[in-house]
Amino acid sequence: MARFLYILLVVVLFGVLIAIHEFGHFITAKLLGVKVNEFAIGMGPALWQSRKGKDEPWDNKGETLYSLRLFPIGGYCAMEGEDEDTGDPRAFSRQKGWKKIVILCAGSFMNFVLGLIIAVALSLSITQIRVPVITQFAGGFQHQGADGLMVGDRIVEVDGHGIWVYGDVQNYLARNDGQGVDLVVERDGTRLVLDDLPMGRYDYEFEGGLYHGFGLIFDAVEELTVTGRIKYGAAQSVDFVRLVWMSLGDLVTGRVAVSELSGVIGVVDVVSEEGAKSETAAQGIFNVFSFMALIAVNLAVMNLLPIPALDGGRIFFVLLNGLIYAVARRRIPERYEGYVHAGAFVVLLALMAVVALHDVWNIFV
Questions:
Q1: CA separation (Å) from 281 to 239, 265, 275?
Q2: Which residues contact 140 (CB under 8 A, 6 or more apart)?
Q3: Model confidence band, residue 157 (pLDDT cutoffs 50, 70, 90)
Q4: What count of other Cβ atoms lies within 10 Å of the Cβ of residue 287?
Q5: CA 305, 306, 307: angle at the middle one, nearest 5?
Q6: What's the pTM?
Q7: What mean pLDDT is reported for the chain?
């Protein structure tokens, strides 16, 4: 029963993430004078529909149909002339390039803001955090001393990557090939650069047993003020962006196999499982919302990739059209751009279907 409730919670939260994305497009389109034919929350058959029919500037005398639909997953903002010129002067296709870019970016911006709000809200319940300060070394660690690492050193960079939260230390050390890691540490108020330390995962002695890792022990914690908690939540949100980019890079370079991709079904399964196995309901809800903050930022980044059918792909065509017009006083016909987006959308749907089948296979096999 608990697992089912967590699944339901995650599904609803996914719907919120997509709805807030579409709301970003909707509100900026309204503010910039673009005609919106329908704004829907949810998908499928309509449960409720209304036209305001008032004279507010953002409503334009009831031209927009507001819908609440059956399935609580997603939503959409249907703007006039998204894919072709309909002749309406307020159509999306007839707007200046900067307006199009603002509207297209607004969905991802809203996703990031939502992820930021969730991360900050969750951090308000945290009273202390682990910090990347070395408190001791595992037995046998060979790089101690003034020319290496010392107890009290605070790790501030690993291989050029800034350490914003403690988890970054382990993430970036784990990505090193063990041949040499470049560290920047803060020692007695001074930053020191330590290049090519041959650190990798080895077997060390620690607390009477074997320890397989890098030999660095981080037991220091820091008490957080209210301001510190807000800063920590904000740092986590920005760190999520870097994590998403890192994951995309791993996928492109082959460091992560395509077979390891998960879609909505896989994410729902993993997140609901994490929530269900938590010791308390409060901890389960905390874990679910922590994942959703990451997913919100993930959606923000992914939607801005220059892939046709995504917002980033549409932004790419806006910029490309601007360049072509500046050079040749011509533009790519809307129908050809529409063909590209439509074809890419079919490919994305096919990929989503394959990933969904893979998720189902992993769940039941």
A1: 27, 22, 8
A2: 202, 204, 205, 215
A3: very high
A4: 19
A5: 95
A6: 0.86
A7: 84
Work out the angle at residue 337's Cα, subtended by the Cα atoms of residues 333 and 338, and round it to the nearest 5 degrees. Answer: 110
DSSP helix/strand/coil, 310: coil
- Rounded to 5 degrees, φ, ψ at 52 are -65, -45
Which of the four pLDDT bands, split at 50, 70 and 90, describes residue 54? low
Phi-psi region of 41 (alpha: psi -120 to 50; beta: other; left: phi over 0): beta
Instruction: Kindly tell me if the per-residue pLDDT of 129 is higher than 80.
Output: yes
- The count of residues in the chain is 365
Token look-up 């900067």 returns 98
**pLDDT for 86-98, tens place per residue?**
888 999 988 999 9
Distances (CA, A) of 95 to 39, 103, 154, 249: 19, 10, 51, 34
Look at residue 287 and tell me whether its pLDDT is greater than 90: no
3-state secondary structure 185-219: EEECCEEEEEEEECCCCEEEEECCEEEEECCEECC
Helices (H), the chain: 2-31, 97-123, 167-174, 226-253, 264-276, 281-303, 311-328, 334-364
Angle at 120 between CA 116 and CA 123, to 5 degrees: 140
What integer pLDDT is reported at residue 103 of this predicted model? 97
Distance of CA 342 to the CA centre of its chain: 25
